Amino acid sequence: MRQNGFTLIELLIVVAIIGILATIGLPMYTKHQAKAKFTAGLAEISALKAGFEDTFNQGTTPTLALIGGTSPTANCAISVAGDVASGTGSIACEILDAPAPVQGKIITLVRSATDGWKCTTTAQEQYAAKGCTAGN
């Protein structure tokens, strides 16, 4: 008599293989999600730079409303600060609704009168976008 189906050993091997793949795949997926959320937050505040510059050029202290922003967004709680007299300012994003490695981390675009815009973040370097200084 011929048997159809799988043996218990075969099923246990399949379950073990799935477990190994999940152990490897889930941390990689979480890292990918964290990087994507960081990039989305950076994109949201980068879009506000033009409005910030326009407001500065008019001699007005920038506010979130004046530069065309709203807060909170799907990715950030955004804040704006600026000093027209010194030509300095910043646009910051506190990352919201994100994986644990970047939840609550701050991305800051800092404007200096001499060097233009620079990006800094409190997130670890492995999650930060290229050109954004990590660990501050």
From TrEMBL:
Protein name: Pilin
InterPro entries, sorted: N_methyl_site, Pilin, Pilin-like
UniProt organism field: Pseudomonas brenneri
Family label: Belongs to the N-Me-Phe pilin family.
Pfam families membership: N_methyl (PF07963), Pilin (PF00114)
GO cellular component, one term: pilus
Transmembrane segments: 6-29
One BP annotation, GO: cell adhesion
UniProt keywords, alphabetically: Membrane, Methylation, Transmembrane, Transmembrane helix
